[in-house]
Q: What sequence folds into this?
């Protein structure tokens, strides 16, 4: 009979439902065991930074959304590989950088296959198209891919040369040289 049931359950009567931990390390451990709710909480915590990183690297909102989604899919699949040697956010950002770079390489390969379709008169580069703007985002967009990636990681997100070079799979000297080149190009474009 329904009228005899209590509307509020006591903790003993409630179904066993473990509360999620508050610390990120514990949350990662619970998510690595397959808890989707814990992973969703990690997703919500890190979505803004991951999307921002993707947007700055891709320069396209739609592509950035796809990269961010792919990064979180990869994070879910590879979460069991996270050893905890670094912060989860650092690991996730490195995974995101790798995801974006992989998509860019694939897009470049696809573009190379289709270059024969391009008109020979269309020789303006993206840098030429945006050279006259004073907008920093536009100037960032006009940088070559390697230089843009380094300036986003070091200049925008504050990673050290060692961290950025490890994420990008390049030598520290190359990272420093590309950052120097990017700063010089940005100064030229912003002063024009």
A:
């Amino acid at each position: 009979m329904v009228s005899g049931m209590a509307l509020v359950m006591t903790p003993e009567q409630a179904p066993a439902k473990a509360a999620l931990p508050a610390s990120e390390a514990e949350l990662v451990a619970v998510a690595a065991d397959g808890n989707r709710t814990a992973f969703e909480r990690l997703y919500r915590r890190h979505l803004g930074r991951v999307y921002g990183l993707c947007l700055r690297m891709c320069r396209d909102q739609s592509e950035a959304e796809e990269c961010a989604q792919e990064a979180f899919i990869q994070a879910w699949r590879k979460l069991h590989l996270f050893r905890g040697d670094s912060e989860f956010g650092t690991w996730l950002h490195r995974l995101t950088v790798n995801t974006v770079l992989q998509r860019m390489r694939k897009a470049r390969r696809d573009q190379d296959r289709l270059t024969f379709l391009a008109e020979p008169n269309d020789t303006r580069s993206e840098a030429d198209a945006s050279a006259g703007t004073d907008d920093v985002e536009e100037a960032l967009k006009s940088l070559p891919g390697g230089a843009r990636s380094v300036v986003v990681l070091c200049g925008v997100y504050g990673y050290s040369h060692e961290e950025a070079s490890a994420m990008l799979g390049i030598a520290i000297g190359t990272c420093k040289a590309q950052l120097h080149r990017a700063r010089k190009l940005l100064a030229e474009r912003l002063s024009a």
Remarks:
- The mean pLDDT is 78.
- The radius of gyration is 23 Å.
- DSSP finds nine helices and no strands in the chain.
